[in-house]
Amino acid sequence: MPAGISPFSCANGGGRRYSGIMSNTSSTLDVRIWRGGEDGAFQPFSVPRQEHQTVLDVVTYVQRELDPTLAYRFACRVGMCGSCGMTVNGRPRWTCRTHVETATRGSDVLELAPLRSLPIIRDLVTDMTPFFEKWQTAQGRATGSKTRADDTQKIDPASPRRQAADAAIECINCGVCYAACDVVASDPDYLGPAALNRAWTLMNDDREADRAGVLEAATAGGGCHSCHSHGSCVEHCPVGLNPSAGIAGLKRLSLLAMVGGKI
Amino acid sequence: MQAAALLFLAQRASALVLAPLVLVHLGLAIYAIHGGLTAAEILGRTQGSAAWTLFYGLFVVAAAVHAPIGLRNVLREWLGLKGLGVNLVLVGFGAVLLLLGLRAVAAVTGI
User: Fold this and answer.
1) Domain range for residue A104?
2) Assembly ipTM
3) Cα A229 vs. chain centroid, distance in angstroms?
């Protein structure tokens, strides 16, 4: 990588709220997109501005109209699939539901890079393998105990544990929290907010048959105790989840289990 | 028992012990300086005192537990140092803190 160039440099801070104001902006957007792999560089493009234009719209325009070799990843375009995560003006975001206005905060500069802390395949596409492998390491998968001959298990939606699970369950696996987390960036063993958030939902799911295994996996080295509670995951989660709270819950459960001699 | 959970608990528990001790220690230092106490006057109050021996003895033990765990996290995350070797060095670091600290406590209290 050339000295001083990083796909994660911040050209422009980036705010959260969409102002809806198009005034004081020019009719074209100065777009800089990361090209190549880890040793790549930013390439400039000029893209016409449109009202309510999303960041994904901009990337799609570049690929369709300016450079068909641009690699990026998306699927649903409506914030459900979690595949369009990118670093937008220094912040990890879901690009299909981020308006250009929000990301640029009124400027004309839009800098797009792949998500941080994941290997770059090419351009805006990262290799998500480490992210999903850590889900498995955290045992972020349901283990059942019933067969199809059994009745459906009754779960009280109002029970505190179910409510805790519901509050964390809507993760779309976009990797934005993973890219936002400074502990992930500095400790390759750390499982990350998404995997631990999933473990937390399982710990609160009465149908989960191996809660002891989940807790052990989520508590081991690189697990919940590596979290510094910076809250970057909470700040950046596009669907408004609070992985920090779930990780704090896992810490609490693990200490109780340790005092009780269960782990 | 999970080492990560045990270290987490040990660091928090030692911090819980250290917090009030550090405040008292700082208050004491300010009081001693403002009062213009000489070293001889300070030693006159601490020599043979079971209370000060207990206070600073606990301080040293808590610090010897707390500091190496925090340093371990710093070495892991900032320098990428891991493994048994690093853990052993940190155990040694804790032992040095403990020995030097207890030696100082013994010198100040004479016990």
Assistant:
1) 28-126
2) 0.76
3) 16
